[in-house]
Design a protein that fits this description.
alpha+beta; 85 residues; two-stranded antiparallel sheet; 4 helices
């Protein structure tokens, strides 16, 4: 979208973002900005457990704990952000 399009109808740009898409704002020659959905808040498992009520009977079974450890171990590669970041 052009700057004028975004300025003239910001609600339309936000609707595109709400659909999970990015809006690239440009001036006809180059990109100026990118509107994208906000990342959801991320919590550590320990933070989620701490949020449980004191009388909660929730438990983490050994299989789930093993799956979490395996997922963490499988994704230790360095982050390579896009060149425009």
């Amino acid at each position: 979208m052009t700057e004028a399009e975004v300025a003239g109808n910001f609600a339309a740009a936000l609707e595109i973002v709400r659909q999970g898409l990015e809006v690239v704002v440009g001036d006809g020659r180059q990109a100026i900005a990118v509107l994208k959905p906000a990342e959801p808040p991320r919590r550590k498992l320990s933070e989620c457990i701490a949020m449980l009520p004191a009388d909660s009977t929730a438990t983490i079974d050994p299989e789930f704990a093993g799956d979490v450890e395996a997922a963490i171990a499988a994704h230790r590669e360095p982050l390579e952000p896009p060149v425009w970041d």
